[in-house]
Amino acid sequence: MVSTEDYGQFETAWCPGCGNFSILKTLKESLVESGLKPQDVLFVSGIGQAAKAPHYFRCNLFNGLHGRSMPVATGARLANPDLPVVVESGDGCNYGEGGNHFLAGLRRNVNLTMLVHNNQIYGLTKGQASPTSDEGHQTKAQPWGNPEAPVRPLSVALAMGCGFVARGFTGKPELLKSLIQRAMEHPGFALVDILQQCVSFNKVNTLAWYRERCYELDDSHDPSDWQTAMAKSREWGDRIPLGVIYESRERPTFESHFSTLKDGPLHARRRNMQEVARAMGAFA
């Protein structure tokens, strides 16, 4: 039986009090409760403090360029559709440098889970405004305030037809655990945006700030109602909803469009070396 010890304990480079610690612990527990062993799942990350998270537990990991985790994750899913794939990075990596790939993943409906550590700041590069920083947020790089309106990732995902859109919070680990598990079970692109504190560089959106505003959606919320979900995704400020914002299984996955995958994962196929030689010869 798998346990959290199987995923190991590693020294981190995070600041004491960072929200990444809570996310890492909750993620391990989610994997264990789902019965997944370290060899049973692939994590793909980019660059940043959040992107270091898969470095700190035992797993299959591809750590790529800043914002470029989605192309690698897509390739992995096409090569081995039987392997659960998780993209894990921060708001800057996924919504900023990787924003175009985020949109491509949503359009294609790649069957993977995207976990975004959203602290509304660039932590690794010392505190400039990120795509999700509120307008007017002051930093050392924006001393007169951030002049740009923030990206609303949940709204973007809904507008692009994402079938599973959720928001978690480090201050509610049990809820976050359930969201990660449901996201990994969803057949298609699943987004979990995770609000977290950055104790070093974001003195506005603190753990206390989130606790005062975040609330869990109750049974009166219908996650199958797209219009209601879109309204909830735009709710921000005095009240911030947590939970499954939207869930639908209507769209076919990206992998289902490739008939060759019906015969099983590519890595398990026997290669016809004569065909390989013929294909290579065509480029000679």
Question: Please, could you describe this protein's structure?
Answer:
- The protein has a single domain (4-281), classed as 3-Layer(aba) Sandwich (Rossmann fold).
- α1 (19-33) packs across α6 (173-185), α2 (69-79) packs parallel to α4 (99-108) and α5 runs antiparallel to α8 (226-233).
- The longest helix has 15 residues, at 19-33.
- The protein has nine helices and eight strands.
- It is 31% helix and 15% strand.
- With 284 residues, the protein is an alpha/beta fold.
- The mean pLDDT is 95.
- β5, α6 (173-185) and β6 form a beta-alpha-beta unit.
- It has helices at residues 19-33, 69-79, 91-97, 99-108, 153-159, 173-185, 207-213, 226-233, 273-281, and strands spanning 42-45, 60-63, 85-90, 113-118, 164-169, 190-195, 214-216, 240-247.
- Strands 2-1-3-4-6-5-8-7 form an eight-stranded mixed β-sheet, sandwiched between helices.
Please summarize what this structure is.
By secondary structure, the chain is α/β, with parallel strands linked by helices. Helix content is 31%, strand content 15%. Helix 1 packs across helix 6, helix 2 (69-79) packs parallel to helix 4 (99-108) and helix 5 packs antiparallel against helix 8 (226-233).
Q: What's the CATH H-level homologous superfamily?
A: Thiamin diphosphate (ThDP)-binding fold, Pyr/PP domains
Let me know the largest β-sheet: 8 strands, mixed
% residues in beta strands: 15-25%
Q: Helicity range of the residues?
A: 25-40%
Predict the CATH topology.
Rossmann fold
Count the DSSP helices. Answer: 9
